[in-house]
Amino acid sequence: MPQPVRDPLDRSGCSLQRGGTLPATPSNWLILADDLTGAADCAVAFARRGRRAVVAWGGTVEPGAGILAIDADSRRLPAAQASARHAQILRDAYRPATALFKKIDSTLRGQPAAELAGTLEMLRESGAPRLALVAPAFPANRRTLRNGRVHVEGQSLESTPLWARDHSYNSAFLPEILAMAGLRVRALGLDAVRGGEASLRNTIRAALAEGLDALVCDSDTSADLQHVARAALPLAADLVWVGSAGLADALAAILPASAGPALPERRFARSGGLLFLVGSVAEASRAAAAELAAQPGVGSFVVPPAVLRQGGGEDWHVLADGIAATLLRGEDALVAIETGDHPDLAHGAELARGLAALLQKAGSAAGGLFATGGETACALLAALGIRGIEMQREIEPGVPLGLTLGRRSMPVVTKAGAFGHPDTMTKARQQLRALLDEPAGGKKDDDR
């Protein structure tokens, strides 16, 4: 574990010491996420309510963003490396009087326990003891926590294809997972969560006084998450909020409202069609891709992993040129990595980098981007010289739309692989094309 900064200010002017009093309703939030899609679907909850929310990666800290979500790109790292990376980002980006939100996957992929343990250790070494309030449920996307266990669409997580394909732990019993990372944990059932704001706040105060590391909160509905948010917000100076977009949405909803951000009053340059990337093997993403592929004006391309590993050759160039030509004709291109019946997720990062290299010409021609799978989206955006995304609104829960920052500005939609419905990509295509085609001052669709 890297040692904390001893000088009050590090090279980026950030402080790990408490140095400022966090207001009861904080306006500045730092969101640490293990992938791009998670950072975006948490940040957009605040953007929808009028706060400037920016997603960044690769060490970028966007000035002037009251809500800064950082993609640590740690989903595929071993536990110790994921913990160390979060600690380093915290050192570089955390500022006084900032509320801290640790985004974890609602199905516990990656290394959420190690990342949280590293985050808490760094904070405490800097003189800022914190209690983690852990509520990973995302009821709008049918992920809940009951008796400390994650459920998806009413089934225990361990019985789902998601778990069979990709899991880090022996079970989905969250208190045990956190305890194995060395954290002192207590679970709160639905009776405690729904027992009244004052009672729940007193329970949190008692956990702080006892020196616990984490409280795990059952949540079966969005209202449960709102109970947690309202009870705990006055104690924000002593808390790290830990959850998915469900908890972020509950917090954003109870903060004072601001004037909503508007998409820029201009027409985007129509340099080409829309580029749709499918870097996920999840059933939801593959079903949505199949529906999109059936639409007129969409060219489909399946990229074999062997071609991406080669990084060149005739097949590589034929695909790269064909995708770019489709976009330059004004048509939309759907690009997916071939997975087969038994996909190997161990090489996901390598394939994402290979796909980003293959698509650089296409990305430069595209008028807008839709990407499912955080590694794929981040690799391509970074290759295009884009340093971040300013969030705007949602296509549907868990599917945010934003505007890129950096070398060029274009609309981009990101989606976690397992989120969405069969028509999600088709809906995103309609909204992206409407945004690209509408004149300045044109109609802006209500996404909710």
From TrEMBL:
Pfam families: NBD_C (PF17042), SBD_N (PF07005)
GO molecular function, one term: kinase activity
EC number(s) reported in the record: 2.7.1.-
Positions of the Four-carbon acid sugar kinase N-terminal domain: 30-251
Region ranges (Disordered): 1-20
Four-carbon acid sugar kinase nucleotide binding domain location: 275-425
Sorted UniProt keywords: ATP-binding, Carbohydrate metabolism, Kinase, Nucleotide-binding, Transferase
Annotated family: Belongs to the four-carbon acid sugar kinase family.
Protein's recorded name: Four-carbon acid sugar kinase family protein
Organism: Teichococcus globiformis
